[in-house]
Amino acid sequence: MAKESPDDFRCPISHEIMSDPVILSSGHTFDRASIQRWLDSGHRTCPITKLPLPEHPSLIPNHALRSLISNYTNISLPKSQSSCSDPQALISALTSKSSPIESKLESLSQLGRLTKRDSALRRRLTEAGAVPAVLRCVDSDDPGLEEKALSLLLNLSLDDDNKVGLVAEGAVNRVVKVLRVGSPDCRAIAATMITSLAVVEVNKAIIGAYPDAIPALVSLLIEGKGREKKEAATALYAISSFADNRRRAIDCGAVPILMELLDSGLERAIEVLGILVKCKEGREEMEKVDGCVKVLVLVLRNGSARGVQYALFTLNCLCCYSEEICSEVRRDGVMEICFGLLEDDNDKIRRNASTLVQTLRGNRAIR
């Protein structure tokens, strides 16, 4: 169905069928999750026209297009998938004690494929009581069953309405356990699940309050491979907008680990540092890291637009905090770099560069 669907049903950013189409002030329609990520990244232009947007762009639901997509989806599902019109049939295969693992794996695979793009089916599954059954599969000793169950949970969490319900059903406890003892692929999915659940503000506090949640993510930064480290850093970024979680991450030793990862090329680390630098404890820990300024300056010289934006912000916070760091930043030629960035196309980079220039000129430390 996805391959044959009209192009107008696809988001211009993700190129996937839209589950929640919204209209930007430019007149173009995008899937809400995709355009929100674009805006959260600091962009204030339309992805298609490149024309400027307001500081706080409105996202207007495109009810007509959503209805068309929903009708098309219902008409276009192949007959071989007709059993999914009754989600209870597939859920029963997960809950039945007599169901072999192969049957459960097939049910999870079918549900995983269908729920990836079908928001209506995601809602029907949760209403039919699928979550407890899937969570029991996450507890399985079978790695394949665990991975497919986690992937299905991640799909179900794509809908904001499901995020609070998943937490209430005990999803965080299972996810944190996987972060500790799961396979590499499962741990990466579990970290992504934390990021998805943290879209809802109240979930950030709940996740952080779990004794092992943040320590498990920090451990994954140390022990994980490439994908695991990136997803763990993304999850920490997502939950650290809640102030108490920043201090928890810092207490777990996240700052020197993130600095090391940033120096090794994991640019996602600068985004987390840009959150942790907002609190006094974070600035104190960064000041203790040998070569902290040099690593941040390297991001200014060679990083992506988002990396440069966060590096500027982090350096400014550190310069306001420490006269010693301010002097080191000036010696490393950051003033000249900032002058060049004042002409950058990215509005946030220009603003952050201007702010850092003013801080360096004033050389006023605030403890």
From TrEMBL:
Residues forming the U-box domain are 4-79
**Which segments carry the ARM repeats?**
129-171
* Catalysis performed (reactions): S-ubiquitinyl-[E2 ubiquitin-conjugating enzyme]-L-cysteine + [acceptor protein]-L-lysine = [E2 ubiquitin-conjugating enzyme]-L-cysteine + N(6)-ubiquitinyl-[acceptor protein]-L-lysine
Spell out the Gene3D superfamilies in the cross-references. Answer: Leucine-rich Repeat Variant, Zinc/RING finger domain, C3HC4 (zinc finger)
GO terms under biological process: protein ubiquitination
Pathway(s) it belongs to: Protein modification; protein ubiquitination
Question: What molecular functions are annotated in GO for this chain?
Answer: ubiquitin protein ligase activity
Catalytic activity, EC: 2.3.2.27
A single Pfam family it belongs to is: ARM_PUB
Keywords per UniProt: Repeat, Transferase, Ubl conjugation pathway
Q: Which SMART domains match?
A: ARM (SM00185), Ubox (SM00504)
Q: Kindly provide the name given to this protein in its UniProt entry.
A: RING-type E3 ubiquitin transferase
Source organism per entry reads Rubroshorea leprosula
